[in-house]
Design brief:
Structural class: mainly alpha
Helix content: 40-55%
Radius of gyration: 21 Å
Order of helices and strands: HHHHHH
Low-confidence stretches: none
Largest sheet: none
Number of strands: 0
Shape: extended
Mean pLDDT: 83
Length: 149
């Protein structure tokens, strides 16, 4: 009995996630899973952002707010501006901050240098985890995306 008491006291003293009376169990569990997933994800898979990310936190927060990242709804945000001001850096940082919320993720870049079929192929092979997948045309890529995703 003493061992049980000691074990229960030790468990009770652990810091954790407090359950709020007005919160549903589903939201509570989702919050715990989200926080644990963020800690468990392999940090080596994160995109390199910047050596000195000055002002990046507020930009990330602004974009996440526009994306409604906490909701389970699809949103799209465009980041527009002249070259060299950090659009891709902001996008990578946002990606790193929310990718743990998804089963799979893919960051596509270099739209000008790669053709649309190549981008579709990269997206499909990353998401479907099939490095042998080939897309020979844009129409074939669209068809793959519609049927396999």
């Amino acid at each position: 009995m003493d061992k049980w008491r000691a074990a229960l006291k030790e468990a009770a003293d652990l810091s954790g996630w407090p359950f709020k009376d007005d919160e549903s169990e589903a939201k509570f569990i989702k919050r715990i899973v989200g926080e644990l997933s963020a800690q468990v994800i392999n940090p080596s898979c994160e995109l390199h952002v910047a050596e000195h990310p000055i002002g990046l936190v507020s930009c990330r927060q602004d974009v996440n707010r526009l994306l409604h990242a906490e909701e389970n709804i699809v949103h799209m945000v465009g980041i527009w501006g002249p070259g060299g001001i950090g659009k891709t850096t902001i996008a990578k940082d946002v990606f790193n901050s929310i990718r743990h919320k998804f089963e799979d993720s893919c960051f596509l870049t270099d739209f000008r240098s790669k053709g649309l079929a190549q981008l579709e192929e990269t997206l499909l092979s990353n998401i479907l985890r099939d490095p042998t997948l080939k897309v020979s045309s844009v129409d074939e890529g669209v068809s793959f995306i519609k049927t396999r995703m």
